[in-house]
Amino acid sequence: MARLAGVDGCKGGWIAAIAATEGGAPLIRVAARFADLFAGEIVPALVAVDMPIGLPDRVTGPGRGPEQAVRALLGERQSSVFSIPARRAVEAGDYAQACALALAHSQPPRKVSKQGFHLFPKIREIDALLRAEPAWRERVFEVHPELAFRTMKGEPLAHPKKIRGVVNPAGMAERQALLRAAGIAPEAVAARPPRGAAVDDLLDALAALVVARHIAAGRGKPFPDPPGRDSHGLPVAIWTFSSAPRPTQDRAMSERPVTRPMIEEAAARIAGHARVTPVMRLGPGALGTAADVSLKLECLQHAGSFKTRGAFNNLLSLAVPAAGVSAASGGNHGAAVAYAAMKRGVKATIFVPEISPAAKIEAIRRFGAEVVVGGAQYDDAQAACDRFVAQTGALKIHPFAAKETIAGQGTLGREWDLQEPDLDTVLVAVGGGGLISGIASWFAGGKVKVVGVEPEGSRALQAALEAKAPVEVKVASVAADSLGARNVGQLVYEACNGTVDHVALVPDAAITAAQAALWRDMRLAVEPGGAAAFAALASGAYRPAKGERLGVLVCGANVDLAKLAAIVG
């Protein structure tokens, strides 16, 4: 019988509420060490714990991204979410040293609160276990009790648990009522906590158990979505739940998360909104290869990239609230969402990182969207976008971790198949993985081999396929603004696992050489990410067989013309 556990830190170590997935009254116990929960006869298969998991190397803003995302939901309880500093500060055993390291690794500089510092030993305890036992990384989920209670109630709570450190009876009664309504046995809610734990510790562990049950049932909801990973591969997200199952649990009509019928529906939905882009046939022996090569010129799509397909599919299949739509983007996704929103008469707010090229930011503004610079890197912009969505209720359009996006991008594969029905192989550039997920979903089970292409310095999909799970990678590439995702996420991994033949890696020099060749020989002005698939062929990173009918995707035209001129010379 599978067991679930909700866990909270307490004076005696860790208090755990352990119950069967089928329900029933939970077993309440206190363990001195977190690792003790995984020893003995009753070992939970899934653990939801009120303790930070995954530590950033640097912090931008008031704490990690998950903390910033959930505070806006808690009303007056926002102060219950501590600001967790960078990893080096958490690893410090001395308070003054921790403050100095936190100041050095945060922007703006922030010290460590005394209350937060007292959590560091327990954070280090979980961190050490998960780094030593990789199998548990996908079975231990970070939660926050106040967010869990807020989700149960549907609005911020009316009463705090404590007032000036003293238990508040009204706050306890409010939380106990919510736990009973969520299906926790009344005798467990009213139980006296074991030695070493307080009443509020018990209630927080039971709240974590409620979230664990929802996660196990496929209704888990992370902040951010998809969860990130720290430099050691540990997940970085605070989990709660929603009333509907997670999209990755949907397996209607096949075992793939996105199916051909879904892509067919998306194609019908966006017809007349997205362009049918042409194919350029280079013929046998192109580029000195033995292959019969053609180029799919998606660089001629509205807003300069394939992302217009996914943007329109989101806007035409989901309800758009009064606050409009929002997206985080290195540039192309933001331009596509802005374009689609303009055509649909919808307000758009786009969050971009500081590394976004000026040409892409100008395109977003040209389409009428509000542009907000949301931090140094893409993940910072995504965190800022998530906070905005939580505060305003705007519809978030994710560049790759959404079925509507992937199905929209899959229409490119369908269109390509109709134009070139005899292809053996397609080369597709990979950033976050939404495009290749859609194309691979269309070709799944057929004769066409799908090969991904990533820069050597940005290989999130290749790393995920090697590790058999999404993992965090470092990003350093000339194409980072469009092919710079640090983690493809679970949905993309599931779509590509078993459908993508392999990933070819190309150096930055090959990408810029491909940009120059596309302009010099074909008069195609293409950005680095858009030239990556062509670079794989031109550089020999992908070597086709004799007579192989090869399709190469040229997918992004939002290029800085001054930089292109410098490359071409």
Please give the alpha-carbon distance between the first and last residues: 68 Å
The computed structural class is: alpha/beta
For the biggest β-sheet, the strand order reads 12-13-21-18-19-20
Total E-strand runs: 21
Write down the overall mean pLDDT: 89
Which runs of at least 5 residues are low in confidence (pLDDT < 50)? 246-254
- Choose one word for the global shape: elongated
Radius of gyration, in Å, reads: 25 Å
How much strand content do the residues show? 15-25%
Largest sheet: 6 strands, mixed
What is the helix content? 25-40%
Task: Tell me the number of helical segments per DSSP (H or I, 4 or more residues long).
Answer: 22
Task: Tell me what the structure shows.
This protein has 569 residues and is of the alpha/beta class. Helix 12 links the parallel strand 14 and strand 15. The chain contains 22 helices and 21 strands. The termini are far apart. Helix 12 packs parallel to helix 13. The strands form six sheets. Strands 12-13-21-18-19-20 form a six-stranded mixed sheet. Mean pLDDT is 89; it is low at 246-254.
Pick out its properties.
single chain, 569 residues, alpha/beta, 6-stranded mixed beta sheet, 5-stranded mixed beta sheet, 22 helices, 39% helix, elongated
SSE layout:
Elements: E1 3-10, E2 13-20, E3 23-31, E4 46-50, E5 59-60, H1 65-71, H2 87-90, H3 95-104, E6 106-107, H4 114-117, H5 120-132, E7 140-142, H6 145-153, E8 162-163, E9 166-167, H7 169-181, H8 186-189, H9 199-216, E10 220-229, E11 235-241, H10 260-270, E12 279-284, E13 292-297, H11 307-317, E14 325-328, H12 332-344, E15 348-352, H13 358-366, E16 370-373, H14 378-392, E17 395-396, H15 403-419, E18 425-429, H16 434-443, E19 449-455, H17 460-467, H18 480-483, H19 489-496, E20 500-506, H20 508-522, H21 528-539, E21 549-554, H22 561-568
Parallel strand pairs: 1-4, 4-7, 5-6, 13-21, 14-15, 14-17, 15-16, 18-19, 18-21, 19-20
Antiparallel strand pairs: 1-2, 2-3, 8-9, 10-11, 12-13
